Amino acid sequence: MAQERGSAAGSIGPKEVDSPAEVRREVADLLREWSLAGHEDVVGDALLVASELASNAMLHAGGITVFAAELTDRAVSLHMSDGSREVPEVLPATTPSGRLHVGGHGWRMITKLARDIAVTDLGERGKRISVTVALTPPPG
């Protein structure tokens, strides 16, 4: 059943998760009742951002400590905490010699697909990355 305009559709957590696959399943379940007939690509964007946030936490920050998400009729907000205080950065797409970097493209995808990106320092507990992915397709 599709949600009415302006209504909160659901949330996840905060909870502990063990893998990017688990995060993706959780977000997919949250989005399951969201009806965007003909615009499945925006749901795919949300799942990709969730997967990349989780993968980055696992690969570069010692793992996911807490995950949460909220869904409204217009967006899904994702919150991923990890144990590192290091702020992610967009790396150049190519090496100085012009070769494509292997890896290092996840944060770039996140910054392209998400909006309202915030990194919160949690002190000794690491950081929390919060992003919003619009679920309404762009005009045109």
From TrEMBL:
<keyword id="KW-0723">Serine/threonine-protein kinase</keyword>
<feature type="region of interest" description="Disordered">
    <location>
        <begin position="1"/>
        <end position="22"/>
    </location>
</feature>
<dbReference type="InterPro" id="IPR050267">
    <property type="entry name" value="Anti-sigma-factor_SerPK"/>
</dbReference>
<feature type="domain" description="Histidine kinase/HSP90-like ATPase">
    <location>
        <begin position="17"/>
        <end position="132"/>
    </location>
</feature>
<protein>
    <submittedName>
        <fullName>ATPase</fullName>
    </submittedName>
</protein>
<keyword id="KW-0808">Transferase</keyword>
<dbReference type="InterPro" id="IPR003594">
    <property type="entry name" value="HATPase_dom"/>
</dbReference>
<keyword id="KW-0418">Kinase</keyword>
<dbReference type="InterPro" id="IPR036890">
    <property type="entry name" value="HATPase_C_sf"/>
</dbReference>
<dbReference type="Pfam" id="PF13581">
    <property type="entry name" value="HATPase_c_2"/>
</dbReference>
